[in-house]
């Protein structure tokens, strides 16, 4: 469907902009060339990646759905990182309990975005939002939040910053590891439980 390519291009465009805040926070030079490559590159790359996954989906249908989920997940990740880095930049805090609080807030922003994109695009729901469905989403997302925040906090606060690594970089590494840790949980619980009744196909 052409709509899929338009939507994933929008995701690529948004991700291209959202990546700038964490990039700035870890000390990269945000030049006009950097911005152009990020925004235009990801806007072009996203539809190409989805095209490839749609072709692979002819062999194993889950590829296309997972491709959409991954695109939405990338957007959620950058929203998550954007909010996290904004809070760190505003406060100058990169660890401790405040970091854990920042991470919880940023993850909630990402998962709220996730609900609507995954319900109506990834899993093709034709039904309106209901309290019971949102309740299921919330329940499984709470587990995802626990996985995400716990892993990020373990990396940042328990494993700790390796010698020679900037705290800002390590905080972002912790956040990224956490995202991937929760990703499989989210995909399979959303697919098999939360949106199971109203998926296309």
Helical content stands at: over 70%
What sort of overall outline do the alpha carbons produce when their principal axes are compared?
A: globular
Main beta sheet strand tally, sense and closure: none
Radius of gyration computed on alpha carbons: 17 Å
Distance between the termini: 14 Å
Whole-number mean pLDDT: 88
What is the count of β-strands? Answer: 0
Description:
Helices cover 81% and strands 0% of the residues. It is built from seven helices and no strands. α3 runs antiparallel to α4 (62-91), α4 (62-91) packs antiparallel against α7 (167-194) and α5 packs antiparallel against α6. The chain starts with a helix and ends in a 7-residue tail after the last helix. 34% of the residues are buried.
Could you write a compact summary of the structure shown?
This protein has helices at residues 2-18, 20-25, 32-57, 62-91, 96-122, 131-159, 167-194. It is mainly alpha-helical and 201 residues long.
Secondary structure blueprint with pairings:
Blueprint: H1 2-18, H2 20-25, H3 32-57, H4 62-91, H5 96-122, H6 131-159, H7 167-194
Helix pairs in contact: 1-3, 1-4, 3-4, 4-5, 4-7, 5-6, 6-7
Core attributes:
single chain; 201 residues; mainly alpha; 7 helices; globular
């Amino acid at each position: 469907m052409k709509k899929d390519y338009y939507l994933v291009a929008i995701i690529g465009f948004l991700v291209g902009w959202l990546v700038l805040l964490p990039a700035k926070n870890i000390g990269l030079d945000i030049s006009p060339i950097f911005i152009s490559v990020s925004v235009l590159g990801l806007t072009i790359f996203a539809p190409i990646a989805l095209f490839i996954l749609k072709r692979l989906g002819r062999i194993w249908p889950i590829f296309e759905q997972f491709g959409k989920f991954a695109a939405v997940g990338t957007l959620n990740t950058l929203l998550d990182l954007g909010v996290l880095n904004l809070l760190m930049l505003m406060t100058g805090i990169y660890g401790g309990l405040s970091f854990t609080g920042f991470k919880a807030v940023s993850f909630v922003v990402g998962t709220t975005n996730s609900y609507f994109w995954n319900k109506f695009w990834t899993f093709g729901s034709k039904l309106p939002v209901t309290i019971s469905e949102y309740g299921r989403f919330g329940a499984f997302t709470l587990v995802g939040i626990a996985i995400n925040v716990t892993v990020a906090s373990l990396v940042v606060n328990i494993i700790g910053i390796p010698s020679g690594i900037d705290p800002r970089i390590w905080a972002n590494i912790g956040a990224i590891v956490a995202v991937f840790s929760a990703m499989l949980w989210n995909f399979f619980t959303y697919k098999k439980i939360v949106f199971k009744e109203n998926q296309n196909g």
